[in-house]
Amino acid sequence: MLSYDTYTSEYGGGLDSPWLNLVSIVQSEVLSQYADELATDFRFIAPDVTLTVFETFTVTANWNTEMPYAVDSHLISPGGVYVSNNKDTVAGMFDAYNGEPLSGPEHFIVEKRVTNAIVVWQPLGGQTDLKILPLSGWAANDPVLLLACDHEARCLSQSTVSTADNAIHFTYSSVVEGLDVQYYKLVKIVTQLYLPVLLAN
Fold first, then answer.
1. Closest CA to 170 of 195, 140, 147
2. pTM of the entire predicted model
């Protein structure tokens, strides 16, 4: 069970800790999707790495506190975890993501792929460059709108990035113009072409 103590103690906790936001995001965006599922398999896939299989999700845990573990083009941090449903949700503590090294250890990333958009949270970890794979149907060099949003889903900034070499690259910063960023959202820009209609009498 994932929990958090709002009281500050020698073990952590408190209202000012980034772990409070992390627990909130993981509970609402990841664990809630398979909280009622049964575990169908559990096994060691390496001496210090376990794989737990649920009905729709898998959880890979790296129990080694000194060495990262590579899986699915990601690098799980020492003592980290990787959760995926091989469909639209990825979460975990990474040293590298989609084959791209992160700025330092222990970046907790949550990625959700919804209709026509990709949402990325990083409740724990410093500023880093991220590599995100585009949705199917997003062609190379398609313009993509990058939105930085706050806790109220208000847009703090927007910019345009492109899909190149089957990847989207952007810098994840937790602060934009002095305001806290809760998540980034990638949305494909759809250009509508209006043709003149000629009416003949």
1. 147
2. 0.85
Strand stretches in 24-154, DSSP E: 39-46, 49-54, 58-62, 69-71, 74-76, 81-84, 89-97, 100-101, 107-114, 117-124, 128-132, 143-149
pLDDT digits (tens, 9 = 90+) for 24-77: 899 999 999 999 999 999 999 999 999 999 999 999 999 999 999 999 999 999
Tokens of 103: 């700025």
38-71 burial string, b = 16+ CB within 10 Å, else e? eeeeeeeeeebbebbbbeebbbbbbebeeebbeb
The tally of CA atoms less than 13 A away on the side-chain side of residue 66 is: 0
At 36, phi and psi to the nearest 5?
A: -100, 10
Please choose, from the candidates 95, 90, 58, the residue with its C-alpha nearest in 3D space to the C-alpha of residue 78.
95
SS3 85: coil
Tokens of 102: 């992160």
Of 62, 65, 57, the closest CA to residue 26 belongs to 57
One-letter amino acid at 185 equals K
Tokens 């590298």 — which residue?
Answer: 96
**DSSP calls for 58-75:** EEEEE--SSS-EEETTEE
Phi then psi for 33, rounded to 5 degrees? Answer: -80, -25
| 136: its two tokens | 């199917």
Tell me the two tokens of residue 167.
Answer: 């990847």
Rounded to whole angstroms, the Cα distance separating 120 from 25 reads 11
The CA-to-CA distance between both ends of the chain, in Å, stands at: 73
